[in-house]
Amino acid sequence: LENADGKEVGSVKIESEEDTYGNNVVISSANSEKPVIIDMAGKDLTVNGTASNEAQGIAATGGDVTIKGAADVNITAKSESGIASAIHAVGTSADNKANVTIENSGTVTLKAENKDGGVAVLNAQSNANVNITGKVNITQVCEGNVAVNVGEGSTVAIGGGEIDAGKDGTAIVITGEDSKVIANTDDKGESK
Questions:
Q1: What's the pTM?
Q2: 91: which of 56, 60, 123, 186 is 20 to 30 A away, CA to CA?
Q3: Contact 47, 72 (CB under 8 A)
C-alpha cells in the first residue's frame, strides 16, 4: 500500500464525520453490483465511526463489502445517544443478501459503545452473510446488550477468537430457523 506521494505505509486508518442527522457510516455498500473491495496488501486497517446518533463502522444494505489481505483489523463504532454497530449487514431479500467478508491473517477487533444500548457489535440483521476468516475479538461495551446478533436468513462465520458481551450482556443471539453461527472456519467460511 502506498500513500498519495508513492511512499509505502504500514497501516491505514479510516475515519469520517457524521452527517447533518447525526449519523456516521464509515464504509458502506448498498449495491451488490458495485461491491466495495479494499485490498490491504498485508497491512493493518483501523476504522473509527463516532456519531451523536447512529454510528456504524461497516454497513452493507443489500450490498457487498470485502476487505482482503489484511493483517490486524480494528473497527470501532461509538454513539453518544443512539445506536452503534462495528459491522451492520442487512439484505433486502433472501435473493439479495448483504455480504461482509474480512480476510485477515491477524485479529479482527470489533467494539461498539453506545449510551443506551440497542444494537449488537456485529449485527447480521437479516438475509446477511458475515465471514471473518481469522480470529476475532468482539467486545460489547454497553451494559446488558448483545455482542453478536444473527437474524433471519443470516450466517456469521468466524475463524475463532473471543466474544465478550460485557456486564449482563448476551454473547450471541440467533433469531430465525435458518440462521447460524459457524466457528473455527476456513477462508471460505466453512467448518475446518
A1: 0.89
A2: 186
A3: no
What are residue 18's phi and psi, to 5 degrees?
Answer: -75, 155
Of 11-25, 43-57, 69-83, 90-104, least confident by mean pLDDT is 11-25
pLDDT of 116: 66
pLDDT in tens, 136-178: 999 988 878 899 999 999 999 999 999 999 888 899 999 988 8
In 7-69, alpha helices (H): none
CA of residue 5 relative to chain centroid, distance: 30
| Burial per residue of 122-151, b for 16 or more beta-carbon CB atoms within 10 angstroms, e otherwise | bbbbbbbbbbbbbbbebbbbbeebbbbbbb
**Alpha-carbon span 130 to 88, nearest angstrom:** 9
